[in-house]
Amino acid sequence: MEEKTYKILVVDDDKDIVERLESKLKREGYEVVVAYDGKQALDRIAADNPDIILLDLMLPELNGFEVLKEVRQKYSERLRPVIIVSARDELDSLKKGYGMDADHYITKPCNLEDILRGIRTMISLMPHRIE
Length: 131
Known about the structure:
Blueprint: E1 7-11, H1 15-27, E2 31-35, H2 38-48, E3 52-55, H3 64-74, E4 82-86, H4 91-99, E5 104-107, H5 112-125
Parallel strand pairs: 1-2, 1-3, 3-4, 4-5
């Protein structure tokens, strides 16, 4: 049986972070699409139907919470994993993210292995998600 290639959307307004993540994820065998603001993220989700979303919170246009809210309302038929990757490490942001059905929350600065571990965890849980 052929192994599925997972498509990951990386959403961050920091071009260096996006480029590093994109490079590492491609080397790991993932397909990668990118967005640099919240509006672009929603456009990419509609156009590219990613399997997993890596979402920064502090974004131009729409912030990460607004994007997450839209994703959960608009795509509720498919519970797509959303991993928040943000420098906002205060408890209120974590509570808000999880309260809005984020699947995982990683605080910056973090290393790429933390993000890869989060992605692998989401992939391993996908067969158990209820649509």
